[in-house]
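S1.2 Input.
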Amino acid sequence: MEGIYKEKYLHKAEVLIEALPYIQRFNRKVIVVKYGGSAMADEELKKNVIKDVTLLKLVGFKPIVVHGGGKEISSWIKKVGKESEFINGLRVTDAETMEIAEMVLGKVNKSLVSMVTELGVKAVGISGKDGGLLKCDKKLSDGQDIGFVGDVKAVDPKVIYDLLENDFLPIVAPTGIDDNYDTYNINADDAACAIAQALGAEKLAFLTDIEGVYADPDDKDSLISELTVSETRKLLSSGNIGGGMLPKLNNCADAIENGVNRVHILDGRIAHCLLLEIFTNHGVGTMIMRDGEQGE
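S1.3 Output.
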């Protein structure tokens, strides 16, 4: 019995020792986590993600959460008797829909703040409107006007720097303002990417509903653990990448080319995927890095 007891706790010690060099390497570094998809819809997964982010904060990292809320926005639009309309995968956002989206994103934002606070870490929820964080232009979809949907054109990260400096964990809802101070909904991937670039983040992690990037989407054994920017661009031009992964991979490559050190695409449906990717030698998703660099 004593041998089993020792083996159990020795394994725990080995896990901690494996994490040590990563804790040392990324101490005081900024990590932007884009949080959305199924990991937001499932309460147990939501708790796991928040625990992961809180742990990152407590071991000395500087995490920032940028969250979505698309499924909940759709649900509320239905509740008020409207139909969600999409053009090329982008939600058409009229003034009433924008009002609903802002309300729902605010609700999601403060629920995440409460969950982090409950775990003993100070969190502050903001939107891209606060402190002029995200300035945007109207986004068109193949030339079509889709309403109050924004493209990020400028980031003023001062409000985030101030929060980090005062030991808060920023949680950001993806809305912004244009030059006329109208409110726009921004794709959460785009917002996370823009914020990570503006801060020169060490890591940008996308929590998604797939395991990572596949060389062949129809072959689940073709998961790619590591990609350089050049390999990513080549994969994008191969025609094998489609759907929601296409803009996500473009965002990843852009982020690396604009100052982010590493980008990770992770399956948010896997419990504690964030910790597994950052603190273990093998990781669980796809990591994208600069040309000529080696993995962790």
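S1.4 Remarks. The longest helix spans residues 2-26.
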